[in-house]
């Protein structure tokens, strides 16, 4: 059996899960690497720039109050010496605003940075802030100019002069973006490489599962000797061994059941066959005794006993014949001897041979001209069993219909009785089934409907039992034309 391909089968789900884990791993690693590298790049540029800017400001010798000309020279000199690249430098002293550009102030320098610079006016370390303006990242720095008082504490006093520097971080951001691009471009090959172990792993997992499915399918088709080669010590190997043990036990149980069934069939067949000879003699004797009882040569008690023995012997003969017939079906020895016949004529002969011609008992409705290829003897048994069952257990009149339905003909037998109880319907074709467990005897053998079912199946047809809406049971036989 070839496994059916499923778009989202177990193999696909395993591979997708493996790739998802690989993708999450790559993404997490890339994110952590990006974060660490970005911080390292920006901090390196930030520390370099802030250290250089602080040295430049601390090395100034500014007279207070500073003149605009001298202050302009200082900011331009500091701007030229910017590290790691050129700065834009601004100086603020009271209301004086001087810059190394054509604009006295910068919109990049935020109020927060100015407030921080004034709060830390006595600190030589300065402050910084990273700002994004119009999509461009900037590093802004603020360092106050101090003058030293040479006392025992060597203290520094604020001058009120604050220098600001603005440096673009576009190169650092470009380096970070390059790292992101490299990580993204490297993820696809990584996933492609991860696909190989994913396929190998899924194959290793699915091979025993597929073998188990094939083995289960073979067992379902009757190959009970199916076994799975189990190796290793993982859970799938344990499952394979459990399957083998269960299959072996099932094979032993089924073999024993088949042997018991064969013995039972052989016993029924042998008993039925052995009973035929003595029954033939008993039937001959009972016929003679029936004639004497009918002639009045026997007293009344003897005559009743003779009629009872004759009836029971007849029932036994019918039971033996039915047992032999059902044994042939069980042994697959039943054969069809088909001939092309007129279906209506066959049904009519069945009714006439059994004297079911009284319109108050049986009402026929035949569509003329229906011809089919069937075994007349076995079809006669089918019709006789259904009509006889309707007369015994249903209510007269019994309606027998024959008509065409596509490429099949239908034989329908309906009665006017109480119908079949819904709990009984699934079992009406079972052998020796009794709708009323208290009823131990019946006029039939208990095998009539079972034989009917087997004969219909032998013709390639179907038979169904049901109830009519207006009341009464109905049996419907469909056979190919």
From TrEMBL:
Domain of life assignment: Bacteria
Residue intervals of the HAMP domain: 203-255
Catalytic EC class: transferase
Topology in the lipid bilayer: Multi-pass membrane protein
Subcellular location(s) per record: Cell membrane
EC number: 2.7.13.3
Single GO MF descriptor: kinase activity
UniProt keyword terms in alphabetical order: ATP-binding, Cell membrane, Hydrolase, Kinase, Magnesium, Manganese, Membrane, Nucleotide-binding, Phosphoprotein, Protein phosphatase, Stress response, Transferase, Transmembrane, Transmembrane helix, Two-component regulatory system, Virulence
Keyword Cell cycle carried by entry: no
Requisite cofactors: Mg(2+); Mn(2+)
SMART domains tied to this protein: HAMP, HATPase_c, HisKA
All residue ranges annotated as the Histidine kinase domain in the record: 270-481
Reaction(s) this enzyme catalyzes, per UniProt: ATP + protein L-histidine = ADP + protein N-phospho-L-histidine
A Pfam entry, by short name: HisKA
UniProt protein name: Signal transduction histidine-protein kinase/phosphatase MprB
Organism the protein comes from: Streptomyces narbonensis
